[in-house]
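Researcher: Please translate sequence to structure tokens.
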Amino acid sequence: MTALTLSTAGAATLRADALVVGVAKGAKGPVVAPGAEAVDKAFDGKLATVLETLGASGAEGEVTKLPAPAGLKVPVVIAVGLGSVPEKDAAFDAEALRRAAGSASRALAGSKKAGFALPVASLEDAEAVAEGALLGAYAFTAYQGGEDKLASKDKKNGNGPKSPLAEVALLGAKPRDKAFKAAAERAVAVVEEINRARDLINTPPNDLYPESFAAVATAAGKEHGIKVQVFDEKALVKGGFGGLLGVGQGSTHGPRLVKLAYTHPKAEKTLALVGKGITYDSGGISLKPAGHNETMKCDMSGAAAVFATVVAAARLGLQVNVTGWLALAENMPSGNATRPGDVLRMYSGKTVEVLNTDAEGRLVLADALTRASEEKPDAIVDVATLTGAMVLALGHRTFGIMANDDAFRTSIHEIAEEVGEASWPMPLPADLRKGMDSPTADIANMGERMGGGLVAGLFLKEFVGEGIAWAHLDIAGPAFHEGAPYGYTPKGGTGSAVRTLVKLAERTATGDLG
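Model: Translation complete:
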């Protein structure tokens, strides 16, 4: 993990491999952002002119490297685009700062230390820059640079993967101020847990399966004082968890339900989080077509987000009880696999006709939602890479939010936007429920094709306890990024929804949900 320090040095005196400054897009060309005054002075007040000559405009995500002039203690200056200049008296958007810091961190891979002199007008700005820089420095290299001779030779020649930026020195953040220190500590804790989620999502399915995921959760529980309970196959059979068992029965790796309970002695509220943890999704007997299987190790992104959030809550000592439920299974085709047409008896007692074994996430979530409801939490949020329909509706960067309570849905949407996670509130139209009527069972696991993401939400709603506020986050789009990295978003697992869930836990603790 990249280290974070609040530097007492100024931009002109900091000793590091590079110094990062901000540049905005003005009406007549690039404009040097606050925080870079000393750097601009070292360029004789012509930093903006030099950047424009090099083709820089200040557009978001733009990175320009410059040799540092005399007067600075660093060899390189990196100017990163912040987007349009804010209106008069307005500060730069926190998400713009977060993304700019992430872009700079990615450009600094292989460096030991870099100073970040981006605009820090408030505590929130400092935390955003810290988060972005740390998130952007992420790299998943666990399976690279092995011991074979060719790999070793490449590493010696500098042709192997570069290590992430080792240290972020944040300038202008009042290092002696307790509030700024707390913000930095929060940023480190949250980002470390997001990166833990990313690592899990990126881990190949031959190494990450229900039992091994449960072992990771158990180890983290011991480290952070979280009570962990693992329901193995015997316990699932005894408890009647037909959804988890039905999805997992086609695999040699049996399913698990993992409960993580963080409690605070002064907590007055309990938040339950439920995560879809399909460690690999082949589609089962309803096999996915070629070209759709390769990234299906990411189908446990919801469980990874829930796991990371519970650990973050424990590390931050939040005054709220947070319970995480990881519904873990591997969906495989075999002679033992559930068939289309089979009927499963769920933990709730309801029967479900399985019309498509590739609509498996809702089956494992249904069991976990019912079990979580038994403990009567104040609210339940489930997180899942649930439907391709949600990706068609909202694209690859936005997750959908459905709920049985409009005010709760609005609160989560506002929180997500505040922390920089794109989301959109979605309805649960009652007329779509009829499409899941089954002549054989209480409900089918499929309904109308159009509005499939909403149909999935309506299915889950059936398994939430009476009188409990519930929300469903379908993160199928942003959970796994297949394109080139941008901002602080890497290729592969992103850790989507963790920032939203941590902030939700904090707001639940303070009773400030709007």
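Researcher: Any highlights?
Model: The mean pLDDT is 95.
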